[in-house]
Amino acid sequence: MNKLIRFLYICLLGIMALPVRAGTDRVVNIPDSVYLFSYASADGSSGLKLAWSHDSGSWVSIASGFEFIKCDFGPWGMQKKMFNPHLMQNKTDGTWRCIWTLTSSGKAMAYADSPDLLKWGYQSHFKTEELTRYELQNVEKTIQKQLVIDGSNLSGWVQKVSYSLVEQLLRYTGYKSYQQMLSEESAEQDTVRFADLNPVTATIQINADESKAISEHLIGIFFEDINYAADGGLYAELVQNRDFEYTPDECDKEGWNATHSWSLKGSNVPLSIETDSPVHPNNPHYAVLEVQEQGVTLLNSGFDGIMVKKGEKYDFSLFGKMLDGKKGKIKVALVTKEGKEIAQAMITVSGNDWKKKHAVLTASADVADAWLAISPQSIGKYAVDIVSLFPQNTFKGRKNGLRIDLAQTLADLHPRFVRFPGGCVAHGDGIDNIYDWKGSIGSLESRKPKRNTWGYHQTRGLGYFEYFLFCEDIGAEPLPVLAAGVPCQNSRTPSCHSTDEISSYGQQCGIPLEEMGAYIQDILDLIEYANGDAKKTVWGKKRAEAGHPEPFNLKYIGIGNEDVISGVFKERFTMIFNAIKEKYPEIIVVGTVGPFFEGTDYDEGWALATELGVPMVDEHYYVTPGWLVNNQDYYDHYDRTKSKVYLGEYAAHARGRVCNMETALSEALYLTAIERNGDIVSMTSYAPLLANEKHIQWSPDLIYFNNSEVKPTVSYYVQQMYGQNSGNEYIASSVSLDNVQGAVKKRIGVSVVREGTNGDLILKLVNMLPVSVKTSVKLPLQNDWNTTVTKTVLVGKPQDREVCPVSGTMQIDENFQYEMPAYSFTVLRIHKR
Ligand code: AHR
After folding, report:
1. From the CA of 802, how far away is ligand 1's center (Å)?
2. Contacts by 613-616 with C-beta closer than 8 Å and gap 24+?
3. The overall pTM is greater than 0.85
4. What's the family (predicted)?
5. Mean pLDDT value of segment 799-815
């Protein structure tokens, strides 16, 4: 109710600010037209703002500086600048164009068009020499002015507009602030919002005869190498910088270079990094140790130390050769920080050709932060590269495999698909950083390491082959995502390889059109690599050589990642989409519709997908818990004839970007609405998935970890409860409450699905209220149901961060009672006999 009053108040203020229209029976005191001033903050940090005046004398900013359009150009954050936005209205059709400068020098310019100042088309570079229908004689007159708005002296453009336009802008911004207010609802206000609330009584009527088919792939995972999720995370390699390929341009941390994580003891000659005759051209750097006396040791400190377990075996390998001397023995050991050896083995390096050497180390103690020690035993000059240490105990015992505890935690989610390798990692920071899948397969020494857009190094030991294998190992569909021929619009690297101010200033740029053919061929080759015949196709053969003659049965391929849907994007996406459709019509292409649940990229992306008939689009939105609570009807009205939806990245972001019971419950609540819309929403994945707690670039994440522990969040348990209890049929149910307040109703979520394989009926019950909900469930049970049901409950206070679900059983009959605890998520699984 309070919300409604505030909304009405906002609308009233807007209306009071308006003069009274001529022709009504109220006092007539306005001219036919008023004045509109377009401006932005003087430092360029804002988007387009508007102020209006009835006499061009006293000015009022619209909605206190509401930003009608924000600049897309330039790298992350505040570097996306808008200076001096010049708004012009076309005399012929009344449409608008806003032209602004991107830099204070004014050399680089951009523009966007709008039919009504509310919806905006995509942004493009504006070249003054381009004659457009907005050339000066065809637009309403504008005058440049310096005005004081909300206490600041600002430069902008004034023009006459119709009074109804201002009315419309005020109504629109009033509605936007109302929506904003709803999104800001949080459990912190519950003590006030629900001060007098008594336990609620609910009746749920389940109508097992009324059902619809829903997606079997609703819950999946989105793996991106962010927060050290791959190297130093899921990829079980224990040696950091094994390839000596760290380069200063990957990260601005001091010492981020080819010797990072390595140190040399007992030598007068420093460790040198050379490039003359590498083991493979894709890995140009290698280490050279000139041993002039006994006692030289090359140490690697791993990723914050190397965690080893007593009795476990570790596979060691390196590529080595002698640059001076015929052959030399090398002791390989695991040592504690105090220098105590806990495992050791010997290898011999000989000749001046690279040879791969292996040894197995068995740990004699548990150590959380051991180091790897490589100690040449004879005088000579040794070259070493791709120094590797893997636990033998990887997930499913795979060589070059995955960390068992982390991979098992992912498998326990029972994900139906895995999206990889990003996120931003997929489309990269600048054209050269686009993730090239071919560079991520083959022998480890031939893989191309890559700068990670999140500011570190990717060995790509965990590459496309390993991703496909992991999907197979956990029974999930692979969903690779490739760039749509454009890098990330937020790239810090000048995308267009241009040094001049105008074209280097973002936004997106794209692979030159003459190179698109080769790029598209790479994408087609990926499909062949995954599915092609092991003997008859070039790329199928490569898969077989890697040890997997059977196809991986790739069904989905994502093109693009929340890109700006510009002309540059559209052209390239269309080329890729058409090529895949022609050669592999059976592949489901997943397009992209920008980073938000609304706005220009969302509109343009959906329009393009509809025009081309793209089977599925990838939506992304990181929103507040309040948004999820208040937008449960988001998909209810989606057009069922258009593309299906993959909600590829989402998470509730509360203040402080924490993951707690409130954020997790809001996700659980929203997922009841997703299940209801499982006929149109085909897939969902929380993002991001993994974070090494010592190397976090993004929060919250679903699972945190360090070298010895895996720490699933509350959101993880919500995903797990959904993943382990998903169905392929949605069963209709109705909920009636003894309390009809909107705020109460929208905090109770119910979803009923049937699982195809065994016919179990699954009830999901979410209660985001501070009181319990006494529920009476009416279920037309027939004899073939087991009356002992499995009950899994997640319950805690909104701010709790360490909560786990508890499972048990309970008895039910056709009309059973269940009390949903305050702030809880319950899954009841009714087993088919
Ligand atoms: O999930 C983290 C990042 O969020 C992804 O890389 C990107 O797609 C989005 O902006």
Report:
1. 25
2. 613/643, 614/577, 614/589, 614/590, 614/643, 615/588, 615/589, 615/590, 615/643, 615/644, 616/556, 616/588, 616/589, 616/590, 616/591, 616/643, 616/644, 616/645, 616/646, 616/682, 616/683
3. yes
4. Belongs to the glycosyl hydrolase 51 family.
5. 96
Which of the four CATH numbers 2.60.120.10, 2.60.40.790, 3.40.50.300, 2.60.40.1180 does domain 198-210+730-830 have?
2.60.40.1180
Mean pLDDT, the chain, whole residue set: 93
| Residue 562 known to be catalytic | yes
Angle between helices 464-474 and 513-531 (to 10 degrees): 40
In percent, the amount of the chain with pLDDT more than 90 equals 87
Ligand 1, atom 4, residue with closest C-alpha: 423
Residue 496: CA count within 13 A, CB half-sphere: 17
Nearest-angstrom CA–CA distance, 763 and 810: 13
Q: List, for residues 36-89, the tens digit of each pLDDT value.
A: 999 999 999 999 999 999 999 999 999 999 999 999 888 776 578 899 999 999
Burial classification of residue 615, based on how many CB atoms lie within 10 Å of its CB (0-12 exposed, 13-18 middle, 19 or more buried): middle
Whole-number Å distance between alpha carbons of 801 and 717: 11
- Where in the chain are the domains? 2-183, 198-210+730-830, 221-228+396-723, 248-393
Q: Which of 637, 584, 644 is nearest to 615 (CA)?
A: 644
| Pairing status of strand 710-712 against strand 729-737 | unpaired
Q: How confident is the model at residue 500 (pLDDT cuts 50, 70, 90)?
A: low
- Element of type H or E holding 723: helix 714-723
Counting from 1 in the atom list of ligand 1, the atom nearest the Cα of 649 is 1
Architecture (CATH level 2) of domain 248-393: Sandwich (2.60)
CA-CA distance, 478 to 475, in Å (whole number)?
Answer: 9
Q: Return the best residue to mutate from 491, 620, 685 for the ligand 1 pocket (most ligand atoms within 8 A of CB).
A: 620
Residue located via tokens 């939806």: 645
pLDDT tens figures, 661-686: 999 999 999 999 999 999 999 999 99
pLDDT tens for each residue of 543-572:
999 999 999 999 999 999 999 999 999 999
Strand partners, 324: 381
Residues touching ligand 1 (Cβ under 6 Å) are 224, 226, 422-424, 561-562, 595, 649, 687-688, 698
Query: Could you tell me the sign of the dihedral formed by the alpha carbons of 462, 463, 466, 467, in that order?
Result: positive
Instruction: Specify the DSSP class assigned to residue 242.
Output: T
Task: Report CA(372)–ligand 1 centroid distance (Å).
Answer: 34
Strand ranges in 421-484 using DSSP code E only, listed in sequence order = 450-452, 456-458, 477-482
- The strand pairing partners of 144, in sequence order, are 157
Domain 221-228+396-723, classified CATH 3.20.20.80, yes or no: yes
Helix (H, G, I), strand (E, B), or coil: what is residue 691?
strand
- Cα–Cα distance, 828 to 809 (Å, whole number): 9
How many CB atoms are located within 10 Å of the residue 33 CB?
Answer: 15
Among 185, 562, 649, 675, the active-site one is 562
User: CA 384 to CA 242: how far, in whole Å?
Assistant: 10
Q: Which residues contact 829 (CB under 8 A, 6 or more apart)?
A: 725, 760, 761, 762, 789, 790, 791, 792
- How far away, in angstroms, is 423 Cα from ligand 1 center? 5
Closest CA to 691 of 682, 680, 700: 700
pLDDT higher than 90, residue 636: yes
Residue 226 CA to ligand 1 center (angstroms) comes to 9
Q: Which residue among 561, 646, 647, 653 has the greatest number of ligand 1 atoms within 8 angstroms of its CB, and so is best to mutate?
A: 561
Whether the predicted pLDDT of 130 surpasses 90: no
